[in-house]
């Protein structure tokens, strides 16, 4: 059995080596290149492919894999939006993903960023850079005094709720589907409007669907408390960035931590030093002392990467051995 893994980063290599040591019967080849039209030929002769990239898996790549007799593609991430469902089905490719790799990684990061906003660390960092070591007037706020509105109580939202409770914050939550334990604790409000009216912090942990795109728009910000903090480590288009900029200008929003942006592929995962970038909203937000931008790194921990490698290789091997995997993604 032979598996080729594309786009393997330096930080993934020890986990691939560990998996290989546990599966001596499998021949594993790793390449740093992404799975592109120019590199798909490397897969010839292999039984399965493991990959992770933001770049599209082109229709030509899928057809070429099928032409080589390869029908198993295991992604080391969750998202399958860079695959064309029609081409996946036409070429009879079975695709698996890793839907849950470390909810704590994202939850802990969200909380960290809220603390950074409340304790104004960006402002102190800049003061230090100017050798200004005075503490006033940047007075902070305490997390235990906040009413944290968690939108989305799935894997990540639930871990975040537990952490917030540990800090002594009051937590309220909104989800289309109620988790029985949280329901029993009485954490749910009945509507987003109710959450907007009560929360002093709003943190997003829901997926991006057409119905959730621009969930936080001008109308939503208008319903929130003055001085609310916004945390988004979910998906950029959940927030209308123009509306957020207006809300920051007016003081409606006291601060925002954004691990994801509407147009993040223009910026994130590139070295932009000395390069021009046509993304005015990014420059506007990044220039603010009360906005923290991180390049979609909430997930990026040793535990998460280990699980992404292990679970994708396990799924690919399972496909090769049995033709099926419970991690198979439906494109219907
Ligand atoms: P999940 O599927 O376990 O939970 C999502 C929750 O959202 C579910 O409880 C669902 O009922 C709820 N939901 C869906 N649509 C809704 C709506 N319209 N209104 C209210 N609630 C709704 O997902 P998860 O693992 O907790 O991940 C949440 C999101 O985090 C993902 O969709 C992804 O966008 C994001 N994410 C970000 C990173 C990162 O590095 N920043 C990493 C992984 C995931």
UniProtKB/TrEMBL annotation:
Record-linked CDD domains: LDH
InterPro entries xref list: D-isomer_2_OHA_DH_cat_dom, D-isomer_DH_CS, D-isomer_DH_CS1, D-isomer_DH_NAD-bd, D-LDH-like, NAD(P)-bd_dom_sf
Domain D-isomer specific 2-hydroxyacid dehydrogenase catalytic: 9-329
Residue ranges annotated for the D-isomer specific 2-hydroxyacid dehydrogenase NAD-binding domain, each copy included: 112-298
Keywords associated with the record: NAD, Oxidoreductase
NAD among keywords: yes
UniProt family annotation: Belongs to the D-isomer specific 2-hydroxyacid dehydrogenase family.
This protein's name: D-2-hydroxyacid dehydrogenase
Species this chain originates from: Limosilactobacillus alvi
